Amino acid sequence: MDEILLQILNGLDKGGAYALIALGLTLTFGTLGVVNFAHGALFMLGAFVAVSVQNILTISERVRDESITFFEAYKEVPYLEIWWGETGTMIIDYVVPISILVAIPVMLLIGVAMERGLIKHFYKRTHAEQILVTFGLAIVLQEIVKANFGANPIPTPAPDIVSGSAPVGAWLGLSENLVYPYWRMIYLAFAAVIIFGVFAFLRFTTFGMVVRAGMADRETVGLLGINVQRRFTIVFGLAAVVAGLAGVMYTPILPPDYHMGMDFLVLSFVVVVVGGMGSLEGAVLAGFLLGILQSFASMNEVKQILPGIDQVIIYLVAVVVLLVRPRGLLGREGVMED
Fold first, then answer.
1. What residues form DSSP beta bridges with 77?
2. Would 237 disulfide with which of 108, 127, 136, 265, CB 3.0-4.6 Å?
3. What pLDDT score does 338 carry?
4. Nearest CA-CA partner of 268 in 255, 282, 256, 257
5. pLDDT digits over 23-61, tens only?
6. Residue 56 falls within a domain, yes or no?
7. At what angle do helices 127-149 and 39-57 cross, to 10 degrees?
8. pLDDT tier at 213 (50, 70, 90 boundaries)?
9. According to the model, what pLDDT value does residue 52 have?
10. How far apart are CA 99 and CA 53, in angstroms?
11. Residue 69: its pLDDT value, please?
12. CA distance 127 to 131
């Protein structure tokens, strides 16, 4: 029972990341009709916003180490600690939460600039052309990150107060040996809040209702005198924010490197296809479903019977789903069925 619960938690954790990236991909496809293969790069850029904030907060000065008296020694001390003491240390410790506040405007500007500068020129092009140009953009972005931050992963720790593991087993009346990292649980809760927020925004606000109407019939909404294009540009920016925040929150789980966006993009695109192109509900459902399946497939007992199954389970499920239901689990009729 403990092992099953642990794998469910691991699957929900992975599924949260897949669902957040897939949600942004689906927003882009549903509103603009664009297959954005640069969306994984937005996830990566969000992670490196956290890295940049960490680098800024830890700018240091070389000072003498007073704890060593028998010879002259020096150490690097961040300016924040020199100026504000323990308060400065606490600010550095909370680099990831601070990065969330920084990432929101930064990723919004990046998303709007990407849509206005490049994506808008490919609205009426074929999906193949859209994939090629956005995939090329993703490669350019990751090479820029590699040139500025290097090729090695950069650790970005969670705040000390949540760096340990939670006694999940004791909470549920099971084995006390069942523990799970606090930050992974926080990430799952964060993913749930963002997903709920996106759905609430689209369903209960006037802006969101117009966007949904535009997704269904763009020409009619435009004839009513509504600037649908401006709203779609904002939606593209919001999709970038969602991907960026997912990247920021994932940095304590997976130290950022320049190719992490491409790794997540392929999996998330499969999630979108399985859930149904253009279906927000399908993207979320498929994200968590495939995350849980991948988690169970990674168990040693399963890999002993089917070696390597954890690496291909998502693709096998995608093949089966698309053979039975070409538009995906919750996809709109006619999408990907031609």
1. 61
2. 108
3. 47
4. 282
5. 888 888 877 778 888 888 999 999 999 999 999 999 888
6. no
7. 20
8. confident
9. 94
10. 6
11. 64
12. 6
Q: Could you tell me where the beta strands, DSSP code E, fall in 152-194?
A: 165-166, 180-181
The verdict on residue 79 lying in a domain is no
Q: How many domains does the chain have?
A: 1
Q: Which of 65, 73, 17, 68 is nearest to 43 (CA)?
A: 17
Q: Tokens representing 25?
A: 């991909």
Is 64 part of a structural domain of the chain? Answer: no
Alpha-carbon dihedral sign for residues 53, 54, 57, 58: negative
pLDDT > 70? residue 239: yes
Domain with residue 145: its CATH number is 1.10.3470
Which 3 state secondary structure label does DSSP give 268? helix
> DSSP secondary structure string, 217-254?
-HHHHHHTT--HHHHHHHHHHHHHHHHHHHHHHHTTTS
The answer to whether residue 82 is domain-embedded is no
Range of the domain at 277: 2-49+93-324
Question: Which DSSP helix (H) or strand (E) runs through 178?
Answer: none
| Cβ partners under 8 Å of residue 37, min gap 6 | 130, 131, 134, 135, 138, 265, 269
